[in-house]
From TrEMBL, chains A, B:
GO molecular function, one term: FAD binding
Sorted UniProt keywords: FAD, Flavoprotein, Transferase
Domain of life: Bacteria
Broad enzyme group: transferase
EC number: 2.5.1.26
Species annotation: Spinactinospora alkalitolerans
SUPFAM superfamilies cross-referenced by the UniProt entry: FAD-binding/transporter-associated domain-like, FAD-linked oxidases, C-terminal domain
Residue ranges that the Swiss-Prot or TrEMBL entry lists as coiled coil: none
Protein name: Alkyldihydroxyacetonephosphate synthase
Length: 534, 534
């Protein structure tokens, strides 16, 4: 099975992805859990018994929404509401596992068109009802639990009916995609026409095109295909004031690029209902390889040399010693260190056969020159096969009493090493202070000429209040990121978790720019209140 | 002489560039002018005799500015004011040639630091004085003549003292440039360190780094080096509310990308005082070649194949039949058609020798496959040598009674042919209706996977009121661009000339977003009023 033929599955309230293909911890994981002192916390509360908020929508709101969408597209049932309670961060999942669904929306709406969305926003503006766009529901930064205080209610907008590939312009190599399309569904529709977006975030099985756009997603193939915000050339946005349409050319000097203002707005400025994106022919050939480096610094220097020399594999990532040892590159396979130490680089090449070979040769020359040792195709193919399996491991880890979470940032190359050290030490310090032995792993998975991302995976034992436990580690990480002048998120977004750090990163003038735009398009403030900005 | 060792020269009120290297019309141009019916209009008015506005700054404002900057950095003299009267569009130059300097600022300020600029903006906000950033003064869209009504005066901010290369980060391949640096000066400073921006707009000899950023410049080498807005990773902006600093990583998901909001803001949101830009090693090798295609459509298909296949020459441009015939590629050399018809492509390759050869071979394969005939290095080298000479020809053309102006747009590939036809016909129609025989030439000079720019050069005879004459042609062009869904500017910007069309392009919600940001950072509305938005 490749990334082009995964099924579209229903979202579970707290289990990742396709529940028919759950993650399994390797046998050796038991020892590792014991070493961390993890104790299984008992089973999760059945979602059917979760505590829901007592609120409900005013009858006149329900009537107006029902009149607009049809009764079958307004669901106030417990199951629908619990399924749209928060996102997939570790705190989100732990809360739901503990039976806390108090952030559930009052109703779930299923608009069938852009005009439906515009009408819903009119109604919600008139009645001061908060609106959270909720399709894939994969936010890991608290982007799906808007402020309730001051509003007559909260509705979740599930865009799943906006699922069309509206058209492909084969000359311009663009496609118009509705934003309720899951990533897998979009790729399947494009594949039928011979194209691919090339956008494969780890959340690929669950995330939607709208989420990609609203939260500035970056996929595992970003070295070759770019970030999602680099693929978007046009947007249609439903706002409380009506329709905003952007994108008249690939690039323009007609004022500020408002596309880049809507991308990353996380539902605060409007609901993106379709995007026009650059597509590419489905690759005819691909090769994934592993390379081993003696240290993270050497590996980083090699990646930097590639991207600064203009040699762009499709996938390029570097695991540090800890991550290499745990072999997260193949999380469903046998655990434990590779035994040989060092830092693993995965380099993947896609395109026509000639292009793959040319890029591979140019990359190999530089990887060798920087001290890399070719590990052949096996580690590359193992990584490729397991590329979407990482999140599946979190569920059995929770069951085993582990706390596992990720966080990420980006900075310029000259700052990479010190940022990595600072964030690692901050997280370790916060967990050690709680007497929690821990493992902090890191990789680079997105590279640019001037810098790169850093992605951390943290594993420790769960305390009695694991949400509070993690909050201390996360706060320390945020402070370290800010102190080192890096960005609070490379591709996860802001949500509520990064809101305060964003305010420091952009400063009061920058934040006020965002607030001014929001006030302009959403005078009643009903769009995802409390997300992105306070 | 290469682009790396051109001098920094003083801006003349209405003559382009280095007045020691004026443009000369080729002998054959006389016949062409006669054919168009051009009659020399008599000599331009000496700038020393131009009509200046009667206004002056209130004494308290002058006192405050003098206290802030020093008397030697506040110049209310006639010469300084006339030199900062409007930009370099044809209407701008014709007005000044006729002796009309009524848009002159009341004073010219020379701040020496970012803090000086912040202080000036405070003073101007307090006293409601309009501020126009004016360094290169090369706007061709009316971006340098702000609204005067309702303000106590107008000051031009000449940033020439902000001329430092603040630093180079050799690991991250970034440089911090102050924005008063002329393009030529920035390249010279970077060259001393072994680097280049690779940004060479036709205005290169006069434009500044600040103008590049504020107006979303794209240079002739954009195929290889990208647009200026793609080079910027950080910005420092002086606003009436203080300092805004943006750019913590190459890319981020920490909310909307506010860098892309400031880029293209044309002085309406603040004064960009420094930028952090991606730099590259100075190329060791370069080759420029010419290719001939049977038609514009064939040439465009070839360019599209290159960029969609990921083959990126440094320079890639296609002249249509008319432009090829007039041989604008070498404007100072013998005029007249090449005799062989067709459409000329210039493909330039820069980098290390191996890279140049590899890209050249990959490009040649595709250019041949699309029907191109290799013309060898001569046309390429001629284009390269004359690459900044185009604007020099406008001055003698004015003297000869010709009206010459350019305009540009961009669209997606599938729309290129119909847009080119529509704009050409619109301009020709508007001039023919005024009984003005004309020549409309076009080229593609910036290519993207999904589309390209179109750049038009128009030559006709001057009527008695050439400003009104051109306005009709320009209005028709703007309408055609809008009707075909293209952008009103690929790289010239908005200024006042494109303001109304921008409002149609972005729609009321988009324009209100811009206005909201402006109100937030510039509550008194003193920053370049009337530019970008009304």
């Amino acid at each position: 099975m490749t990334e082009y033929d995964l099924p579209v599955v229903e979202r579970h309230p707290y289990l990742w992805g396709n529940v028919d293909t759950p993650g399994h911890l390797p046998d050796a994981a038991g020892d590792a859990m014991s070493a961390l002192g993890a104790v299984p916390p008992g089973p999760a509360v059945d979602p059917a018994n979760a505590r829901l908020p007592q609120t409900s929508l005013p009858a006149e709101v329900t009537a107006a929404l029902t009149a607009a969408l049809g009764a079958e597209h307004v669901d106030s049932g417990r199951s629908a509401r619990v399924r749209r309670t928060r996102g997939f961060s570790t705190p989100d999942l732990l809360k739901l596992r503990s039976g806390d669904a108090t952030d559930a929306p009052d109703a779930v709406l299923f608009p069938g068109s852009h005009d439906d969305v515009v009408r819903v926003l009119e109604i919600c503006t008139e009645h001061r009802v908060a609106v959270v766009p909720f399709s894939g529901g994969t936010s890991v930064v608290g982007g799906l639990a808007p402020v309730r205080a001051g509003f007559a209610g909260v509705v979740a907008l599930d865009l799943r009916r906006l699922d069309r590939l509206v058209g492909v312009d084969e000359i311009s190599r663009t496609a118009v995609l509705e934003t309720g399309l899951r990533g897998v569904a979009a790729e399947r529709l494009l594949a039928e026409r011979g194209y691919t977006l090339g956008h494969f975030p780890q959340s690929y099985e669950m995330a939607t095109v709208g989420g990609y756009a609203a939260a500035r997603s970056a996929g595992q193939s970003s070295a070759g295909y770019g970030r999602f915000d680099e693929m978007v050339v046009g947007l249609t946005v439903a706002t409380p004031r009506g329709t905003l349409t952007l994108g008249t050319a690939p690039k323009s000097a007609a004022g500020p690029d408002l596309r880049q203002l809507v991308l990353g707005s996380e539902g605060a400025f409007g609901v993106i209902t379709s995007v026009t994106v650059r597509v590419r022919p489905r690759p005819a050939a691909r090769v994934f390889e592993g390379w081993k480096f003696g240290s993270f610094a050497e590996g980083a220097a090699a990646l930097r040399a590639l991207v600064q020399d203009g040699v762009r594999p499709t996938v390029l990532r570097l695991s540090d010693e800890a991550e290499t040892a745990v072999n997260l590159a193949d999380p469903d396979a046998a655990a434990g260190g590779s035994g040989s130490g060092g830092c693993l680089v995965i380099a993947g090449y896609e395109g026509d056969a000639e292009e793959v070979e040319a890029t591979r040769a140019a990359a190999a020359e530089r990887l060798l020159a920087h001290g890399g040792q070719n590990q052949g195709a096996e580690p590359g193919e193992k990584w490729r096969e397991g590329r979407f399996r990482g999140p599946y491991l979190r569920d059995p880890l929770f069951d085993a009493g582990a706390l596992v979470e990720t966080l990420e940032t980006a900075t310029f190359w000259s700052n990479i090493e010190s940022l990595k050290t600072a964030v690692s030490e901050a997280v370790q310090g916060a967990l050690n202070a709680q007497d929690c032995a821990n493992l902090v792993m890191c990789h680079i998975s997105h590279v640019y000429e001037t810098g790169a991302s850093l992605y951390f995976t943290v594993v420790t034992r769960q305390l009695d209040d694991p949400v509070a436990q993690w909050a201390k580690a996360k706060e320390a990480a945020n402070a370290a990121i800010r102190a080192h002048g890096a960005t609070i998120s490379h591709h996860h977004g802001v949500g509520t978790d990064h809101r305060e750090t964003l305010a420091l990163e952009l400063g009061p003038i920058g934040i006020d720019m965002i607030k001014a735009v929001k006030s302009s398009v959403d005078p009643a403030g009903v769009l995802n209140p409390g997300i992105l900005i306070g």
